[in-house]
Amino acid sequence: MEKFTVVTGRSIPLNRADVDTDQIIPAKHLKRIERTGFGQFAFESWREDPDFVLNNPAYEGAPILLAGPNFGCGSSREHAPWALEGLGIRAIIAPSFADIFRNNCAKIGLLTVTLGQWDIDRLIARAEETPSAEVTVDLENQTITGGSSSLIFHFDVDPFEKSCLMNGFDAVTLTLLREEQIREFEESRDDAAYPATTA
Amino acid sequence: MPAPKTITEKIWDSHLVHREEGAPDLLYIDLHLVHEVTSAQAFEGLRTAGRKIRRPDLTVATADHNVPTADRDRPWPDPLSVRQVEALRTNVELFGVPYFGLDDVRQGIVHVIGPEQGLTQPGMTVVCGDSHTSTHGACGALSFGIGTSEVEHVLATQTLPQAPPKTMSIEVNGKLAHGVTAKDVILAIIREIGVSGGVGHVIEYRGDTIRSLSMEGRLTVCNMTIEGGARAGIVAPDDTTFSYLEGRPHAPSGVDWERALDRWRALPSDDGASFDSGVSLDGAAIKPAVTWGTTPAQSVAVTDRVPDPATAATAQAQELAERSLGYMGLRPGTPIQEINLDRVFIGSCTNSRIEDLRAAADIARGRQVASTVSAMVVPGSGLVKQQAEQEGLDEVFRAAGFEWRDAGCSMCLGMNPDVLLPEERCASTSNRNFEGRQGPGGRTHLVSPEMAAAAAIAGHFVDIRTWS
Prior knowledge:
The complex is a heterodimer. Chain A has 7 helices and 7 strands. Chain A is an alpha/beta fold. In chain A, strand 3, helix 3 (99-108) and strand 4 (111-114) form a beta-alpha-beta unit. By secondary structure, chain B is an alpha/beta fold. Chain B has 15 helices and 19 strands. Chain B has helices at residues 7-14, 40-49, 79-95, 110-116, 148-157, 182-193, 208-212, 215-223, 239-245, 255-265, 315-328, 354-364, 382-390, 393-400, 449-458, and strands at residues 16-18, 25-28, 31-34, 59-62, 99-100, 125-128, 142-145, 159-162, 166-173, 201-206, 232-234, 277-282, 289-291, 299-301, 343-346, 374-377, 402-404, 425-428, 443-446. Chain B has a 5-stranded parallel beta sheet with strand order 5-4-3-6-7. In chain B, strands 17-16-15-18-19 form a 5-stranded parallel beta sheet. In chain B, strands 11-10-9-12 form a 4-stranded parallel beta sheet. In chain B, helix 2 crosses helix 5 and helix 12 (354-364) packs parallel to helix 15 (449-458). The radius of gyration of chain B is 21 Å and the shape is globular. The interface between A and B is large, with 57 and 86 residues.
């Protein structure tokens, strides 16, 4: 997975609550068997509205998404983070995220930052007024800074997730280091107590 | 004496492979359900890394999301769907995973077949690359929806790193009124806690209303747990659970059954176990629900009117309500029973089990679907379909003008040919009324199977309590 250290760039203000993964990537586009190629379908329905923020060329290719509360709710489809990644997004800042979506993002190196609504409102106002304004998301120092303005926010991050993101650790590789414990666990319990699908 | 524990804590602790400070817990997974949409890239990851599936004997696959529900033997209209299902078939063969394919009567929606086969049992950990995996909590299992990277992780290691959840008790007490169903209970719960009320939590459903529900009803309640944002939903196992499981193909038998009962009877939350949060609802006050908006929390009683966004609690909720009504093509103040429908969908992992179909058939028997409505019934599995046909339910539906289809996810998410056209309005027994969920521009109203069947016949919503 791609490492995340510092990302600087423009930010996209998507000020809506409860954005579900069906909006991020509609089900009819989940049929590809590759991990790539989903960006072109991101927010497909909303993009039919010419005023939708992602249709504004000023935000094209911006690496930071500023979102509303409960972002990524609904379906567990990892195609949603893949689609955002396909748009060039590296970090999402929101007041809160849906659990599965957040997990899925962490697994592919897409940083999710939780900030207070008040702080996000300030970032959104700035991105709306000056689309070219840049924001820096610094994972090591856990800060978000707004270029020449005086905006500085600190954010919390789970230390384990931070370490995985900064080093680009793959979760499967990490877990396979626990092979011995997994085997001990399997040997310690009564396998007959659990149904075998092959039986 | 050990500290009292919740059922969630008991299952969690008994599946702990490894715990260390500063890292998520490593949990062992007892059952991994696999379907075509969220698995191809995971299998590809295994292949690339030269890894095998650790426990194919704890893994089972089926095709459900893409599959057409009519004319399956004819060429499928979408070559991408064909390719995705074909990829699953190749992968399960290559990796040795048991597979309920399209020619197998056990094929169906993953969340229907797990309990149906007796694969989902109390005290187990269950995962699937699908958010409605919460369904399996009805059997007293701890079950999580996961993404494709996590699917790959479970295939390779049979474990999942997870931070311990918070626990929430949702207690519903009181006798449900005639015509009020498990679907109305969960819609009432989601209206109460909101679509993000459960984030970070495992919800344990408690109280005599929940206890009085059949397994089918509990499966419906747990299924929609994710619509309240929670990581999982669970109902402690009891005699209802045990009689449902007994005799199913993968349920234990003989002396193993007795031993299993002993283990399962120790699972319910201890007296005095504490939850991080709690909500109580009066079951007797719950009315048949209809969603009017584009989140499952936006519902009212069938006797109510479409709410006025101006009455919303916050500016954000008001904006969301305005957007929702715009999308749904509804005006505030419209009586719900005056909303006319174009389509009716009875199916999905929420409401496609035999009891759901019986309830809908009871409403449809001897009546006719309105001439303005196109209605379909999609059983949750090949076995549900078979049983319904043995009971003559297919004849009841066909005679009333419903289409009777093959098993699959169908119009719940519109990945197969069953989709709404733009601005078509549908009464649906599924779980999500998100914008475009049943097809771009389609308008979804979530209801119970009884309410959906009655709406099909009347052509508009009706109060099932006064239906005769």
